[in-house]
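REVIEWER CHECKLIST
Item 1: Sequence provided? yes
Item 2: Single chain? yes
Item 3: Sequence as submitted:
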Amino acid sequence: MRETILKILTEVLEENSADIYLIENDEDLIHYNLNSIKSIHLIIHLEDEFGIEVNDEDLLFENFNTVEKIINIIRKNQ
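Item 4: Structure as written out by the authors:
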């Protein structure tokens, strides 16, 4: 799951994949230019890739600002 998330982050954040793959699970993605617009793109990619629909109450920026939180949201919505 982490590998797939990192692949999506590489595309959404438009960062070098080598840099993205060094991200720690609890590292704040704002340091990699995650913003509200990019987080919407991230959510769309995650929903498509994992076949989920994120609940409205979970659509908060702070739920997607680390890899660990993204994993938790995916697991919650599977």
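Item 5: Key structural point noted by reviewer: The chain has one domain: 2-77.
Item 6: Recommendation: ____
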